[in-house]
Design goal:
The chain has 425 residues and is of the alpha/beta class. It folds into two domains: 11-58 and 371-408, Urease, subunit C, domain 1, CATH 2.30.40.10; 60-366, Metal-dependent hydrolases (TIM Barrel). Helices cover 33% and strands 19% of the residues. The chain has 13 helices and 16 strands. The strands form four sheets. It has a five-stranded parallel β-sheet, with helices on both faces. Strands 3-2-1-4 form a four-stranded mixed β-sheet, with no helix packed on it. Strands 5-14-15-16 form a four-stranded antiparallel β-sheet, with no helix packed on it. The longest helix has 18 residues, at 100-117. The radius of gyration is 21 Å and the shape is globular. The protein starts with 10 loop residues before the first strand and ends with a helix.
């Protein structure tokens, strides 16, 4: 139940709390008024509602998800919680179950959750090793059309760098599927290989020829010797690649010698690479001991977000996996991501503009319509009964109000029982 019901029609939400960075103003939290006219933010209206300091945020942008993997835990749990266990379990489940019907059901469930929580745009990675690419990409295009006007969707293909081929091989077909999908992004997982740099050159050539942005899963390990992020930054500059480059995870930076990590970040900044951190999934997987071992994890797995921001690198946070072998939890709730990222990454007592990393910054990186609180912008808002950061993050804000085009939406979450038929193996 929302904490209050707002009247329809032109209205002024008076006495609300807004992060100053989202209004282009100095300071942390600001008290102000926001008016809504015909679904957009507009001039002050005669009908005013005192919101008693409730916090207003623009609807969220979740730029790194795995909708195709989501909610398979019921039939494919991770046997030991490890990264290797997740890889093997997902591989087996996809081979056995990832039909068009299965994908439609699980992706739809995730999108219903995200919409109810207040997300307006999502980028998902799609496992694309043939023949899965010919199943998942047509399904994604159908879902993208079905959800138009509610959640804007993008997709990036996902293959390991060892599976990459030039256009004469299987990946050429996958790249064509991506290019035929509006907003498609070319994606790859990188890990050490003798010829990785040559593979990256070919990958960038393919993306440039198709005028596609690229999005990498990078160095998702606590091994300080894994440094494929350096390879990406150096090859991007060498080839003069001009499209957007995103890298996700970058966990090994957190275990490297300080001087080496900072030198890598200088390369990333020079190459104009954007970073997405996935703190919940990385905290779950990284530094996990084998099952039955009496050892507490030492490392958080979060990448060096503060050092990145200090260099002018754009940084944002996202959900990553949801109830699958890579992460047993989550609900496509960006407010949860915001709360946990703040705790895990010590975003508090830091900059006053981190709020943009969950809406404005990922929208700019992905090319989505920018979330905005200025006059003329769509009134796509998330309103929480919290007057300060400590009030916002102390509770899950289950009674939040979500407005889309100025109207309060039904925030009923889908029932997990809706997935029962898909969980039977």
């Amino acid at each position: 139940m929302d904490f209050r019901t707002l009247p329809n029609g032109p209205i002024t939400l008076s006495n609300v709390t807004v992060p100053g960075c989202l209004l282009g103003r100095e300071g942390d939290l600001i008290r102000t008024d926001i008016s809504i006219v015909e679904g957009r933010i507009g001039p002050a209206q005669a009908l005013a509602v005192d919101m008693q300091g409730a916090m207003v945020l623009p609807a969220f942008v979740d730029m790194h998800t795995h909708l195709d993997k989501g909610h398979i835990w019921g039939r494919a749990p991770n046997p030991d919680g490890t990264f290797a266990g997740a890889l093997d379990t997902v591989r087996a489940d996809s081979t056995a179950h990832w039909t068009a019907e299965d994908l439609h059901g699980r992706i739809g469930f995730s999108l219903r959750s995200a919409y109810a929580h207040g997300t307006r745009a999502i980028r998902t990675h799609l496992d694309s090793i043939p023949p899965q690419d010919d199943i998942s990409w047509p399904v994604f295009r159908e879902i993208r059309a079905d959800w138009a006007g509610r959640i804007t969707l993008q997709a990036a293909c996902l293959i390991g760098c060892d599976k990459w081929t030039d256009d004469s091989g299987p990946f050429g077909h996958t790249a064509d599927l991506v290019a035929a999908t509006p907003g498609g992004v070319l994606g790859m997982v990188t890990y050490p290989m003798a010829d990785l740099r040559e593979r990256l050159r070919g990958f960038f050539r393919q993306a440039a020829a198709r005028e596609l942005d690229v999005d990498f899963h990078v160095d998702e390990t606590m091994d300080p010797g894994v440094e494929t992020l350096r390879d990406i930054a150096e090859i991007a500059q060498e080839t003069g690649f001009e499209r957007r480059i995103v890298v996700g995870h970058c966990c090994s930076l957190s275990t490297q010698e300080e001087a080496r990590a900072r030198d890598t970040l200088d390369l990333v900044a020079k190459a104009g690479i954007d970073v997405v951190s996935l703190p919940m999934c990385n905290l779950y997987l990284q530094d996990r001991a084998p099952r039955g071992t009496a050892r507490t994890p030492r490392f958080r797995g979060i990448t060096l977000v503060h050092e990145m921001r200090a260099r002018g690198i754009r940084v944002c946070f996202a959900s990553d996996n949801t109830r699958d072998p890579f992460y047993a939890y989550g609900d496509m709730d960006m407010l949860e991501v915001m709360r946990e990222a703040t705790r895990i990454g010590h975003l508090d007592h830091s900059r006053t503009d981190w709020a943009g990393a969950f809406s404005v910054t990922p929208a700019a990186i992905c090319g989505f319509e920018p979330p905005d609180l200025s006059e003329g912008a769509p009134a796509d808002l998330v309103i929480c009964k919290a007057r300060s950061w400590t009030e916002l993050f102390a509770r899950p804000q289950a009674d939040r109000i979500v407005l889309r085009n100025g109207r309060q939406i039904d925030r009923t979450l889908p029932d997990y029982a809706d997935l029962d038929d898909l969980m039977r193996t």
